[in-house]
């Protein structure tokens, strides 16, 4: 996957989950540019894809099982779709899906992951799912009206990611302050990832040029997805820290970033 490091590094810092949107349509140029990037993202893995649906998120929520909170109408939403039989499909969905979210963020759009079991019979919207595909999450996209909530805006500017676990807690085998800068940056940026109820299920392990992302406990499907989100964040942190490398799913943990020698 082609990662625009500077742009997504910035997006990691400014993104936060938003429930309230203006009804204003997304600019046609922005939509076109997002669609183009999503096409590119969809070529990464056959197990996971993203699609922009130009309908309000409120029209799809009744078809997702569970409780979500109080969302307003949005001009569009992202559909996160997995291939039911694919290997590492949940972590790949998190990885590709967060790339879509960060790209939307970099265009000034608000977003919020919402996961839940999709019941097509309850849906007002026809999602074009191919055989073996399943909609596992959505995110509204649009111009946030929360930006006008000054308190929240200032607090988030002053204390970005104030509500995340300390990096030391995220490294069960220990966090070594003498680790290379790119490793520490990767873990810090990894810790900013979004997760359901902010549960932060990811844990990091480092050795021999390899940063492993694993789940704190027995991974449920959605925890795997969240670890995939943290994996992308960690990779952005590593690249920003000045190294190149590749992603490997499976192996020691759920997935790893392996530094190029
Ligand atoms: C898989 C997943 C599901 C989520 N589901 C919801 C949801 O149903 N309703 C909601 O308001 N936020 C939801 N969130 C957003 C989280 O609550 C949010 O990411 C977390 O509290 C951290 O806040 P932040 O994203 O602003 O950094 C979800 C996030 C993820 C990754």
TrEMBL record:
It comes from the Bacteria. This is Nitroreductase family protein. It holds the Pfam family TM1586_NiRdase. It comes from Halanaerobium saccharolyticum subsp. saccharolyticum DSM 6643. GO terms for molecular function: oxidoreductase activity. Residues 9-238 form the Putative nitroreductase TM1586 domain.
